Automatic annotation (TrEMBL):
Ranges where the General stress protein FMN-binding split barrel domain occurs: 25-177
Record's compositionally biased regions (Basic and acidic residues): 180-204
Region (Disordered): 174-204
Protein's recorded name: General stress protein FMN-binding split barrel domain-containing protein
InterPro entries linked: Split_barrel_FMN-bd (IPR012349), Stress-Dev_Protein (IPR052917), YdaG_split_barrel_FMN-bd (IPR038725)
Organism: Roseisolibacter agri
Domain of life, per lineage: Bacteria
Record-linked SUPFAM superfamilies: FMN-binding split barrel (SSF50475)
Pfam families: Pyrid_ox_like (PF16242)
Taxonomic path: Bacteria, Pseudomonadati, Gemmatimonadota, Gemmatimonadia, Gemmatimonadales
């Protein structure tokens, strides 16, 4: 991050840069667990970006994200060409959002698949008979692990009347309203987080 960017964020009243790492992580986990579906962006071989909805699977430790996919999916061809991805989350009711930038890798590790398997995977895979029945041993199942390199998110912890007041004040004064806190996690913070096992129960 450039010095100019740091200065801009320090001056921006929506950036909350004094939040401890543990608090930032707790709020990030709560947002991701509460939204579940990400807009998963990859880059095609021709350079164009493609975004598709994908459901985040049960979180393990740290800030990395797991997704289930079909090994025959075109997105896997895109990840071979360029593993850099972005996962965007948006919570409509509060307008909170999360942007996770990272790199993706694909695995068909049977133990991990069995650990993360959910019955609703059958609906996405379909039952083609035999081993291709959508069960945990279906050879089409692959997991995509997104290893986060940077995260930016907004956190709304103000009551609705205060948010409306801030918006009205912004319209009247021309000043940027403070309706949510903007927070970021850089690579060094994410590496520190990855070394600490999340003590809370994982959510499906």
């Amino acid at each position: 991050m450039s010095d100019a960017s740091k200065t801009d964020r320090t001056q921006d009243r929506n950036w909350d840069n004094e939040v401890p790492l543990e608090k930032k992580l707790d709020d990030l986990y709560a947002l991701v667990d509460g939204i579940e579906v990400a807009l998963f962006t990859t880059r095609r071989p021709d350079g164009h970006l493609v975004t598709r909805p994908m459901q985040v699977q049960r979180r393990t430790a740290g800030t990395d994200l797991w997704f289930m996919t079909n090994i025959e999916s075109h997105k896997l061809e895109e990840l071979v060409t360029d593993p850099h991805v972005n996962c965007g989350f948006y919570k409509d009711r509060t307008r909170e959002w999360v942007s996770v930038s990272g790199t993706a890798r694909v695995t068909q590790d049977k133990q991990i698949i069995h650990d993360l398997y959910q019955a609703d995977w059958r609906a996405w895979l379909g039952d083609e008979g035999g081993a291709r029945d959508g069960g945990p041993d279906d050879p089409r199942i692959a997991l995509v692990l997104v290893e986060a390199h940077s995260v930016i998110y907004s956190k709304q912890d103000r009551p609705t009347p205060m948010v409306l007041f801030e918006l009205a004040k912004g319209i009247a004064t021309g000043q940027q309203p403070k309706v949510a806190d903007m927070r970021s996690l850089d690579e060094s913070e994410l590496q520190r987080a990855a070394k600490v096992e999340d003590p809370r129960p994982s959510s499906a």
